[in-house]
Amino acid sequence: MKHHYKLNVTWTGNRGSGTSGYRDYERDHLIGAPGKTAIAGSSDPAFRGDATRWNPEELLLASACACHQLWYLHLCADAGIVVTAYEDEAEGDMRDERFERIALRPRVTIAAGDRALALQLHHTAHQKCYIANSVNFPILCEPVIV
Predict the structure, then answer these.
(1) Coiled-coil segments, which residues (predicted)?
(2) How far apart are the first and last CA of the chain?
(3) What tens digit of pLDDT does each residue of 7-24 get?
């Protein structure tokens, strides 16, 4: 099955002289799509970006985290495992302009269902995650079931 996604990114960082010099423009931009709230983006502060805005590296990490979470919740619902809370303290490492790895650390609270199966379903969610299947670096998963 094919899915198509479309959005727009609009640069908002022109200080009046455009990109006349490396230090003469902001890295600010808006990520938008019809019917959705815009996301305020910039580059990482190490690359002259605004630390109060989301950068592409954070958005990639968030995408991997959210994709895993959504697959996991789906699999738990199908397996009769009742998840009442899910929180992930994910981290990613980048070196030489490429990601080396992402580590997902989901902490999941279940009210009903098999704890061992709840733990194993993280492996299945990882196998099904579209983001994990699309990147060329490892995404590790270190779950805790409560």
Answers:
(1) none
(2) 36
(3) 999 999 999 998 888 999
